[in-house]
Every structure is written in structure tokens, then in C-alpha cells.
């Protein structure tokens, strides 16, 4: 199960680091063409979401890899789960069911990591 959790952490980390860098660095016009919801959210909030996703992605891997402050991994998973719940709310208001489904999958993965790393498979 530990290997399975590491695989989930790696996949989640890769997705959120990439998404975070995109949201934190790309111009607003380019983001709107790729992520239509950005048009409804102020630019500083989009940047904050990007930084939070980037930090959460790093938090999935680095604490366990270096065996330093390993409690940060399940906390990062919790933070990413919260971001996904909020994202699902935004997409529900915008009537975007496919985006809600994708966010739900990421939420489930984050919840499995939270369960495993807070519980029986903590570092």
C-alpha cells in the first residue's frame, strides 16, 4: 500500500505542480483561452490558486523524500482537497459538469492520500 500511495502522490504532485506553474506564470489572456473559468476570477486570485497548487504539489513529494516534516504530506493533500471542493463549487455555478468530474477524481485521490498518510501508512 505504501508504494501505491507513493504512486498516487507522484501523479497528484505532477498534475498540481504543472497546473500551479501555469496559473501562476501565464498571462491572463492565455489562461482564459485554456481555462474559461479564469474570466470569472480576479487575476490575483488565479495567481494565489496557482501558488497554492504548486506548494501542495511539492508537499506531496518533498517531505517524504527527504524525511523532514513528513506531516506536511497529508496536510498538503488536505489543502489540495479543499481546493478541489472549492473548484467544484465554481464549476457547478458555471454549469461545467466535465470539470466537476475531473475535480472529483482529484479530490478522491487526495482523500486516499490523506487517509493513508494520516493513518495506517504514515511516514
Automatic annotation (TrEMBL):
It is a multi-pass membrane protein. It comes from the Bacteria. It is found in: Membrane. The keyword Ribonucleoprotein does not apply. The chain crosses the membrane at residues 6-24, 45-62, 68-88, 100-118. The keyword Glycosyltransferase does not apply. Keywords: Membrane, Transmembrane, Transmembrane helix. Signal peptide: none annotated. This is DoxX family protein. It comes from Streptomyces litchfieldiae.
Amino acid at each position: 500500500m505504501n508504494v501505491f500511495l507513493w504512486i498516487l502522490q507522484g501523479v497528484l504532485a505532477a498534475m498540481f505542480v504543472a497546473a500551479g506553474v501555469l496559473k501562476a506564470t501565464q498571462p491572463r489572456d492565455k489562461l482564459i483561452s485554456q481555462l474559461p473559468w479564469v474570466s470569472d476570477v480576479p487575476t490575483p486570485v488565479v495567481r494565489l490558486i496557482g501558488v497554492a497548487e504548486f506548494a501542495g504539489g511539492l508537499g506531496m513529494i518533498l517531505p517524504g523524500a527527504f524525511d523532514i516534516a513528513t506531516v506536511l504530506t497529508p496536510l498538503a493533500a488536505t489543502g489540495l482537497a479543499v481546493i478541489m471542493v472549492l473548484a467544484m463549487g465554481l464549476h457547478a455555478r458555471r454549469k461545467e459538469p466535465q470539470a466537476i468530474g475531473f475535480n472529483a477524481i482529484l479530490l478522491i485521490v487526495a482523500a486516499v492520500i490523506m487517509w493513508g498518510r494520516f493513518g495506517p501508512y504514515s511516514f
